[in-house]
Each structure stands twice: as structure tokens, then as C-alpha cells.
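Hi Y.,

Following your request, here is the sequence exactly as I used it, all 394 residues.
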Amino acid sequence: MVLAQIKIPAVYMRGGTSKGVFFCKDWLPDDPAVRDRVLLRVMGSPDPYGQQIDGMGGATSSTSKVVLVSRSARADCDVDYLFGQVAIDKAMIDWSGNCGNLTAAVGPFAIAQGLLDAPRDGIAVVRIWQANIHAKIVAHVPMQDGAVMEDGDFELDGVTFPTAEIKIEFLDPSGEGDEGGAGGMFPSGSPLDLLDVPGVGAVELTMINAGNPAIFVDAATLGLTGNELQRDVNGNPGLLRKAEAIRAHAAVRMGLAKTAEEASQLRPHTPKLAFVAKPSAYVASNGKHIDPAALDINARIFSMGKLHHAMTGTGAIAIAVAAAIPGTVVNRLMTQQANGKVRFGHPSGSLVVGAEAEQRDGAWVVTKAVMSRSARRLMEGTVLVPSAVFPAGF
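Below is the corresponding structure, written out as C-alpha cells. Let me know if you'd prefer a different format.
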């Protein structure tokens, strides 16, 4: 007996150092519960083996992602963008935050699908409404002969091949909108806090809303130096438990979860926990020697319980914002004070990100954060989903 399957249009794309399956919103069922069930099956989750063999997922936090795009109902935006972080071993999609890396692919996808008009040549300015965190993002997408440019000489550490550069502006990235009750750049009202974490002790940290909710600690808090690679961290279960304990209890302090257990079970995607340190030399995952003299700070970030292979896009934005604000963990470890741009080292190399900050009535406000990424279509066509996943009569 042949198992009947239903075809759904989809595009597999790389954005920054992440990959995901992209859909126009109207390609999927309207019912969110049915939609999520379909998307889980597309990605091959939940998979107790942790490999997502029977789906499109790549068995890492960077490759188990879905994106929904539609024309925007807002007059000041062209498209709405909804991001889902798909758990690998659980039947859960976390819709709580953005993926800054895949943001780079939203404009190219929308243009290719005819969701907005774009110039034949030059730069297409795509105004994106990030529906997860209620924020406006502007992507500058290069065009040539009526199509998105994908070839180019822009190199991004963590991505093997050079492609065309896409500049992304995160407008008002400081989280003044409603993010689960966390409102404001600093949910506690302070750029630096001391949090008592059961089983860990008193932890000095910065809790910030910028791009996504984020938490910064000094690498020394975790017994680290700040130049670690994935292999140094992800095989240490005790360290991962300590990091998750800090993240989960900080999520409660930020108003994002009622309990630490809820943060771990229902909100693994955000807030992200990152650790930072003064620059020191290391060999990146591709064998490249990183010179600390070229860096302002070293930074590493956890994603879905593991150390990220590079840096999340929203993590980069949070670094830029925190670096610009006196008193944060990031700011005090900078080798020199941020002057609009920060160059930081991550496991795959280094990255430059910028933020514009100013004081208003004694409070720091970040009006814009900017970074460059790239994107490329990897496959276009349909994904096949067993008909049993859909309700009767679909």
C-alpha cells in the first residue's frame, strides 16, 4: 500500500549562517494547530534519535527553522515575516523570537514570490514587519536583470562560499514593544543585575531586549575564557546544565516565563544566553587564526541548549546594542568603547555590527542596529507531507 502524500510549495534557503524552509503563509493550513503539525512533519520532528532523518531539518538549531511570509497589512511595511524555531526531539515550534540570520533571506524570498515590486537593477528596499517581536526591519537587496543577485564577493565567516551582500537595518531594536511583558531595553530597569540562580549561585549579568531578548555574562562566570569552540562546550553536560539554569531563571526575571521549568520546556529559543570576554587568540572552526588585536571583544552564544557554531543574527544585534550602553557586561569588557561599530570574535571567525545610540532624558536609546548578511536559494519546489498529518477532508 502506497502512503498518500500531499504536496506543499516550499523554498529551501540559506540566510546568514542558518538554513530554513520558507513558505508563503497561504501555502499552509490556516489553523495554527494543523499548521504546526504539518511543519513539524516537514522538518522531521519530533525525532528521538535527534537526526531529523525523515524530514528537511538538519539536526542543529541553525538548520531546524521555518519561515512564513505574506504581504503586510501595515502601510509602512511590504511583508510580514513569522519565524519558527523547530525543536528537534520535541513536538514543539517556538514562535517567541526572531532569527536574525534568516531575516536576510526574507527580502529575496518575497521578491522572488512577487510579494512586492522591485527595481530591475540596483537595490530593492524591502520593509519587513517581524511578527514575532513586533519590530520593523529594512533589508537592502541587490538586483540585477530583474532578479535578486546571489553571486558576489561578500564573505561571511561561517559560510563557505562568497555571495552578494545584503544590508539589514533593525529599527528601534531595543524592545520597546510588547515582548511577553518584558517591555523596555532593560526589563529590570538596570544594565547590570545580580541574580541568584539555584545550584549556581549569584550571577552578574545583563538582561536586554535588542533584536531578541538576550542575556550576557562574563565568560569567567561559566569557567570559560571566551575563545571556546563547539567541541569545547557541547560535550560538557554539566556546563550546559549550568548555562540553561542561568538562562531559564533570567527568563523569569525578564518576565518571559512564570517559572524556570516553563522557560526550559516551552521557551527554549528565547531569551538567548551569551558569554563574552576580552579578545584572546584562537583558531576558528575552519582553521583560521583569529588575531585578538583586530577584535573589540570575544563572544559566544547558546542556541537551543547548545553552543552556536557562529553567532545568531539577533545575538549580533544585542552585542552591538549592549556594547553601546555604559554599565553592561559587554560594554565593560570592550577593549575600546564602541564608536558605532563593534568587531567581535565568534567560533567561526569574526563579524562587524553597528548600533546608533543616544541619550534621551538621561536614558540610553538605540535607534538602529545594522549588519550585513547574505542569502541564497538552495532548492525550490514542493515538500511532501503524509496525508495522515492533515485532518479528515483536508
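The two ends are 21 Å apart (CA to CA).

Thanks again,
Q.
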